[in-house]
Amino acid sequence: MAYVISDDCTACGTCIDECPSEAIHEGDIYKIDPDACIDCGACADVCPVEAISPE
Predict the structure, then answer these.
(1) C-alpha span between 3 and 39 (Å, rounded)
(2) Is the pTM of this model over 0.85?
(3) pLDDT classification of 43: cutoffs 50, 70, 90
(4) b/e for 33-54, b at 16 or more Cβ within 10 A?
(5) Which residues contact 17 (CB under 8 A, 6 or more apart)?
């Protein structure tokens, strides 16, 4: 089960540096590649707007 980023994402970039598998990609709303996500939750722990959650 991969993590997903909701429309609440502000594209602040905080999560990208935390992802050990480089599964997060930039955009107006960031996206997590479900095939690359290792379900560690590091991104969700640092998201300032709580836009990241388990799928």
Answers:
(1) 6
(2) yes
(3) very high
(4) eeeebeeeebbbeebeeebbee
(5) none
Q: Contact, 1 vs 44, CB < 8 A?
A: no
Phi/psi for 39 (5° steps) reads 60, 35
pLDDT (tens digit, 9 = 90+) per residue, 3-40?
999 999 999 999 999 999 999 999 999 999 999 999 99
- Ordered domains of the chain (ranges, CATH): 3-54 (3.30.70.20)
| Two structure tokens written together for 51 | 């836009």
